[in-house]
Design goal:
Radius of gyration: 19 Å
Strand content: 15-25%
Shape: globular
Structural class: alpha/beta
Protein name: Alpha/beta hydrolase family protein DUF900
Low-confidence stretches: 1-16, 289-293
Number of helices: 12
Order of helices and strands: HEEEHHHEHEEHEHHEEEEHHEHH
GO molecular function: hydrolase activity
Largest sheet: 8 strands, mixed
Distance between the termini: 51 Å
InterPro entries: AB_hydrolase_fold, DUF900_hydrolase
Keywords: Hydrolase, Signal
Helix content: 25-40%
Number of strands: 12
Strand order of the largest sheet: 2-3-5-4-7-8-11-12
C-alpha cells in the first residue's frame, strides 16, 4: 500500500505542471450559431463565461491550480458578483426564448481531459449525424472544465479534480440550462465523466466536507446553493457513452447519520441508455489498479453494475460495446452501435 501511495505521489508531482484548465478560445463562448446551435461554456464551478471574459477575468494559470482561478473567485475579488450572475440570468432567458418554438433539444456533454477544439469535432459529427429539422430541433453544445493534459501519465491527476468539477458543472451549469427549457423533448448525449455532469444536473450530488469548505472559502461558491431541477414538463432522455461513473454516483449521503440512499429522479427523466464495454482500456485502468483511490467508473465497464442499478431505475437500458478498446469520444460516436442506440430511442440519423 505504501509503495502504491508513493508511486501516486511521484506520478502526480511529475505531471502537475502539465495540467491546464479547459477554457474557451472564443471571446463569446456563450453564444448562438446558425442554423440552430446554442454554445454553452462553464468554468470549474459551473458559472457561465460572459462576453469578452478575458478582459475582466484574464487567463487561468497554466498549472491547472484548482484554487487559483474561477469566474466567481475573481468576480468576488472585484466586487462584480452581481454582474456575473446578471449575465447568467440574461443568458438563460435568451436560451429559453430561442428554443421556445422547438420540439426537441439535443444537449451534448463531453468528458474529462478533453480540450474544446477536439470536443467540437465530436459535437459537429453528432450534429450532422442526427436528422434534424432546424425549425423544430435545437442543439446545445455544452462545455465544462474537465481540465486537460498532454502528458500520457497525467490522466489520473486530472481525474481527481475533474470528478468534483463535473458535479459542479452539472448542478450549477447544466441544471441552469435545463431550468430555462420547458415542455420539450430533451436528449442529453454524454461521454465518459460527462455522465456525472448529467446526473448532477438531474439530481443533486454529494460533496465532501473538505471540497465544500474549500470551494466556499476560495471561490465564494456554496455547493448547496444550486437551484433544484424545475418541473417544467420536459421529457428527458439520457444517452451515456462510456459512462465513467459508478453506483456511488446514484446515491445521496447523509453525512450526519452516516447513511446513504439511492437518488430520486424527476418524473421528467424517461430513460437512461448507457453503453457497457469491458474492453474499454481507460475504464479498465481506473477499475483496476487505481480503483480504490479514484471514484468508481465501473458502470460503463461492468454489466453487473447496470444489473444492480436497474432494480432501482427500471427506465435504464444498456447496449454492449464490448470489443472496442478505445475510450475516445470520436470512436464511440463512430461505432455503428451508436446509431443503433439512437434508432432504438426513436432518433433518426442521416446516414
Amino acid at each position: 500500500m505504501r509503495g502504491q501511495l508513493f508511486y501516486l505521489f511521484l506520478l502526480f508531482s511529475m505531471v502537475s505542471c502539465d495540467i491546464a484548465h479547459n477554457v474557451p478560445k472564443d471571446p463569446y463562448p456563450n453564444s448562438f450559431d446558425k442554423p440552430n446551435i446554442v454554445n454553452s461554456f462553464v468554468d470549474q464551478n459551473g458559472n457561465f463565461y460572459p462576453d469578452n471574459w478575458r478582459k475582466t477575468y484574464g487567463e487561468p494559470p497554466k498549472s491547472g491550480d484548482v484554487n487559483a482561478y474561477s469566474l466567481m473567485k475573481i468576480a468576488t475579488e472585484k466586487g462584480i458578483e452581481s454582474q456575473l450572475k446578471g449575465f447568467e440570468k440574461t443568458r438563460m432567458l435568451a436560451v429559453g426564448s430561442k428554443v421556445k418554438a422547438k420540439d426537441r433539444v439535443f444537449i451534448f456533454v463531453h468528458g474529462f481531459n478533453a480540450p474544446s477544439d477536439e470536443v467540437n469535432e465530436s459535437y459537429e459529427y453528432m450534429r450532422k449525424l442526427l436528422k434534424l429539422n432546424t425549425n423544430k430541433d435545437e442543439v446545445v453544445k455544452f462545455y465544462w472544465d474537465g481540465l486537460h493534459t498532454t502528458n500520457p501519465f497525467g490522466g489520473a491527476k486530472v481525474w481527481f479534480s475533474a470528478t468534483s468539477f463535473s458535479q459542479m458543472a452539472g448542478e450549477f451549469g447544466l441544471r441552469n440550462l435545463l431550468n430555462s427549457i420547458s415542455n420539450k423533448k430533451i436528449i442529453l448525449i454524454s461521454h465518459s465523466r460527462g455522465a456525472s455532469v448529467v446526473l448532477s444536473a438531474l439530481s443533486s450530488a454529494t460533496f465532501s466536507t473538505s471540497f465544500a469548505k474549500g470551494t466556499l472559502e476560495n471561490h465564494n461558491v456554496d455547493v448547496d446553493g444550486a437551484k433544484k431541477l424545475a418541473e417544467n414538463g420536459n421529457d428527458i432522455m439520457c444517452i451515456m457513452l462510456a459512462p465513467a461513473i459508478g453506483i456511488e454516483d446514484f446515491k445521496s449521503k447523509d453525512v450526519e447519520k452516516g447513511t446513504d440512499s439511492y437518488r430520486t429522479f424527476s418524473k421528467q427523466v424517461k430513460k437512461i441508455h448507457i453503453t457497457v464495454n469491458n474492453t474499454d482500456v481507460m475504464l479498465k485502468k481506473f477499475v483496476g489498479f487505481l480503483s480504490n483511490k479514484l471514484k468508481a467508473t465501473d458502470l460503463g465497464y461492468k454489466v453487473d453494475v447496470y444489473n444492480e442499478l436497474v432494480k432501482y431505475y427500471p427506465f435504464m437500458q444498456y447496449t454492449d460495446f464490448t470489443g472496442m478498446k478505445s475510450h475516445d469520444f470520436n470512436k464511440y460516436i463512430r461505432n455503428p452501435k451508436f446509431k443503433g442506440m439512437l434508432k432504438a430511442d426513436g432518433i433518426a440519423v442521416t446516414r
